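To whoever picks this up:

The parser on our side crashed when reading a file containing two proteins. I've narrowed it down to the boundary between the first structure block and the second sequence. Both blocks are reproduced below exactly, byte for byte. First block:
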Amino acid sequence: MIRGLPEEEFFASGHRACAGCGAAIAMRHITKAAGRNTIVVQATGCMEVVSTPYPETAWRLPWIHGAFENAAAIASGIERALKTLGKKYNILVLGGDGATFDIGFGALSGAIERGHNFLYVCNDNGAYMNTGIQRSGATPKYAYTTTSPAGKVIPGKREWKKPLPFIIASHRAPYVATASISDIPDLYAKIKKGLEIEGPCYVQVFSPCVPGWGIDSAKSVEIARLAVETRVCPLYEIENGILKITKDVKEPKPVIEYLKTQTRFKHLSEEQVKEIQAFIDKEWARIKELEKKKCRFY
């Protein structure tokens, strides 16, 4: 138990998640931040499958399961129904990066454009883990997945990760943030803030996947922390279009320290590591510049 956090559990123990699952750690603390007065809408994905094997459930909150593509649409309907009835609940939408970056992006984009009042939380583990570790828009460049294998011709995924928080911010969402399971107080605070702000809000949570990344199940939090310390996972929030870094990593560790912890990157050449390092440095410089100039996303 982290001091200052509620003791009541809304994501119960006994679910089927892998030992060391980053997403399960995230779910536990996201729901603590949301509290009892919450309705959960969940897209198909790992957390849906491991938490609801019929006739059992790990959820101690009202919960509805949707498909990959329509969680945000379901939440939109619930939000308007509650408004009509004059009732007030937190509406928490949960999706993996497949349901968020790719398949469900259309519904999410539409819901934000219409201004529905909910918090959408993306469990960012970098692939379609539930269906067999296939590449997604969240998969980092050169990562091995079953659909971006690393060999003599293809060196893993060929494209950089989609900058989804910036895309969501450009929709005029009032609050967008990134978080990590390596900093639970920061995650907790951002979930609380996203639920308190009126309108469609978005928090993207960095959550290592043990089988998908090929990591030691005892080191999920440690590897998530390395992602922050190497600037692979910059932590920031964008409120009313203005970006603020919430953890300024002034002396970053080399990205190789993060990459070497995972078998999905074991094939990387020295040149590919240098390319990744250069990209991370460039992205950090861009984020710092946006913060310095207080550039608006809309």
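<<boundary where parser fails>>
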Amino acid sequence: MVKTNYLLDTLIKISAYGNGASEAIDVAFERIAEIDKKMNARADDSEVTAVNKEAGSQFVKVSPDTFYVIKRGLYFSELSRGKFDITVGPLINLWGIGTDRARVPEEQEIKNALSLINYKDVLLNEEEKSVMLKRPGMAIDLGGIAKGYAADEVVRILKERGIKNAVADLGGNVYVIGKKPNGEPWKIGIQDPFNIRGDIFAIVEVWGDKTLVTSGVYERFFEEDGKRYHHILDTKTGYPVENGLVSVTIIGDSSIDADALSTTVFSLGVKDGMELIESLPGVDAIFVTANKEVYLTSGVANYNFKITDNSFILKN
């Protein structure tokens, strides 16, 4: 049973097999819609928008869902020393990448936005499940982590309903349960970052409960004066990250963690990104550079990684 839907600003496809698969997928989609409604920073009535509106003035009570995702986001903001920062909202809003008002901002506008970005200025009240941003103009954006949380929730729902074989694809966040109905591992294609979504350059084999999350320059971008500007913004410079990488794929067990790590590691670059991933248990990464060189962390060998487009060169 395969069903698709458009939520979280992306096309979502869930394939599940066995008794009750159709109903399980429907419940999963309801759950994704609920998460989207709470955490979409661009919706007028989301919980994240409510927190942002009260920046600098008061705490806002949020659902356990949103509180958990913000807290996890702060963990990765700390782990990456701010390379991944959930208070990047002012910068995202300024560039408008992925909207019809995308533009290259003025230098002063970028400086102003950067001055509002600091994850340490997010205050949490654990008992009340409430959140406050210290300074007016600050804004949380959970775009780099909410999809991962939704993928984890989809898997939880499918498994609770007895589904043993499934794939959930939340536009770049893939999660597999078990094996294919015929007992073979799932073959998951890795997006070719130089081509449109759906074109692949490599394949990995995964089974059990595994997630693959890719972040890359091909996802959302615009062009101005012949230069391409992608959506992964550097919280130090205020411009799109430029470090020779075009995509990073994380393989792990938790999609919320892999989602945050894909952005973090992309921002860190190959060398520092590799070091971070090798220091974390149960997580691996595939790096692709602008000149089509591919770098793998040590555990990727377990997934039978195979390049299918020989214009890409495996470097390690």
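After patching the parser it read the second block fine. Residues 242 and 267 are 8 Å apart (CA to CA). The chain has eight helices and 17 strands.
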